[in-house]
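## Example record

The block below lists the input lines for one assembly entry, exactly as stored, with component labels intact.
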Amino acid sequence: MTLQGFTSAQANTDRGPRDIGQPIEEVRARLSQTWASQGGLWGWLTTVDHKIIGRRYIITAFVFLLLGGVLAAVMRAQLARPESGLISPDLYNQLFTMHGTTMMFLFAVPVMEAFAVYLVPLMVGTRNIAFPRLNAFSFYVYLFGGLMIWIAFALNIGPDIGWFAYVPLAGPEFSPGKRADIWAQMITFTEVAALATSVEIVVTVFKQRAPGMTLDRIPLFVWTQVVTAFMVIFAMPAVMTSSTLLILDRLVGTHFYNPAEGGDALLWQHLFWFFGHPEVYIIFIPATGMVSEIITTFTRRPVFGYLFLVLALIAVGFLSFGLWVHHMFVTGIAELGASYFTASSMLIAVPNGIQIFCWIATLWGGRPKFKTPLLFVIGFLIIFVLGGLTGVMLASVPLDTQVHDSYFVVAHFHYVLIGGAVFPLLGGVYYWFPKLTGRMLSERLGQWNFALAFVGFNVAFFPMHILGLAGMPRRIYTYPEASGWGTLNMIASIGAVVFALSFVLFLWNVMASLKRGAVAGDNPWDAPTLEWATTSPPPPQNFDRVPIVTSRYPLWRHPDTLPVGTGLALDTREIVLTTVVEGRADVRVTSPNPDIWPFITAVVVGVTFIGSIFNGWVALVGLVPIGIGLIGWGWPSGSVEDES
Amino acid sequence: MRTEPVADFAGLPDHAFDHRVVTWWGTLAFMALEGMGFVLSYGVFLYIMWLNPQWPVGFPPQPLFWSTVFTAVMVLSLVPNWLVMQRTKAKDNASLRWLLVLMSTISLVLLVIRWFEFTALTLRWDTNVYGSVVWVLLGLHTLHLATEATDNIVMTALYFTGHVPEKRFTDADENAMYWVFVVVGWLPLYGLIYFAPRLGSG
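Predicted structure tokens for the full assembly:
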């Protein structure tokens, strides 16, 4: 095979010896040294290795999942019986706000991006993510935002305004103090992090795919991450706009949401849900990528309808921007508008349905091996379809009007989000854990984990449909005995305990397997995509030589010997850029080396964001150190990577 | 896994321009997300304007002089900016240095004009929603401008301190591309802040 599309060789900068003609052991050793992060605390703070940052992102997101889960457990304890006095109304307000905020902003979106940060460069066959320093910065900003809101909660100044923080409740008149400001600023932190990661993902997939990886050979998980990244780029500015205007209303006396001075409370809802509905798909779409990869591997056959799956993803991405008003059906919008948003909300079920049928067809035509990852996918199919059906019901204005703000809605979105995202995610953890750690998770514990999760989830959340239809509103800290809701609430709480136990088992499995799990080898599942072509865990350089892709399923096409390219530098971090559509090798460039400035800049940004909650001038004054941080970051350090 | 070399990357060029490099795409992606922020801010302005039958609320439209001077300088700056793009492609280090000095000076002059534009406003951000939206839109673009002014100055400093490997031409080229975005992002704001109230029912 020859490479096409070269421009004539130019007077290239000297980047030291190349790997041509070197024995592979020598290549591996020198590249490992070149791409390694430094040791100790300094190395910890300066690393730009996407695998290390991705791992940190994943662990941090799971810590937030557990924290959010503990809040849910406390709420279920309070609601298990009527007129319970376990929790005060004020604390309950903080609990449900922190639960929703943590799960949406600190767990669900970041964990999906975390998997992208770790896996996408490996799956497209490159040595690091695009803009690796931005990636490090993104993680620290996310971490600081999460720490800020949780420390505030520990100090009893946690937000108490719900995860979507409607005005006027969240405005200066009805929420004095700092609680709402902390919520709004947490948005700024997490959205900056998410936007940065999305830019990295888009550029990595566009420009750093292994030569030969044409658009129709991109793994479906990678496709889902590209679509998601574009959605983040166009959706998240809306929530940053809305929360910034909220902070300005609260801190410097602007009037965007103040009807008395010409502002409007519904402006908040429009801006928030313009982000908020795509947000659901920002969480769900990467999970569908996990589903596609797992189903392909465990049926050991090409996925049915690859093209339809990709088109369906893109269609969902577009359509998700046209549904936001279905969250606002009870705000008195015009009838024509309501009809339009009902239709568009029902329309999105079509591409989602196409995906479901493609997965079922793949399973149908194959001989599936029901290992734990596939069990979680089966659980996903069942639970998500149920959640999707109640979604279609809620798209209808008369029904939505009846059950708005009731437990029916709580049941619906937990079926969609836990079924649609958490089940595939857990399947994904079981699937990729061997790649990240070099060890297998226990299959026996995994099956118990799945069984407890599936049963616990349904026992916890199915009764909520009935409670909602019976009129139980969400966000109440208790209810009277005469309501008759006690029994179903008790069942839901018992289910929550079982569901929580499944996570205890999951954690136990992870901890035990890290120490004693079976050694995985490079490709324990006989999977077809490129991340399985390297060692488990992968070396700092990911691949000793850059793969050349000739098939959508490269490791099935070349099970023994992978075609690769040579000619890259050994002692300088060098990667190959390819053309966007055809994936032809085009340019040979350097990749940034470790640097402390992303950490310093993130600290300065964090101090500025937090300080500005207490004094608006900090936002202006903070621009100076942030500018210095960014200049330090961009200024060449004298290394070959920076100077060539 | 065993590997078999079938291609050699040694002959590939080690730098390029435009869509062939990652920074061009990164700049484009940031322009997309910031552009989305601008589009939403236009939307906020129009939504509030549509909501208030009397627009502008309680005050006459804002004065035109400094904003028009600002707009004129911005549009004219596209000429030296275009020259920057041409000279980067030609790798003409000597001309670029002075063009970058010119662009840095223009961006600082624009910040000074923007200061006068702020002081000419006839209402504060906390007067009513009209004041809020005018100040925030203007502030948003000022932040954009200040960021790019810093970029211009840093780029100039790099060119005067010997940090000019081949890829620095790409950096200067992309910086100039971003300047076009700063100019283009301003024009709808100029129309909305200063002319929409004059066309409205008020």
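Residues 53 and 113 of chain B are 32 Å apart (CA to CA). The mean pLDDT of chain B is 92.
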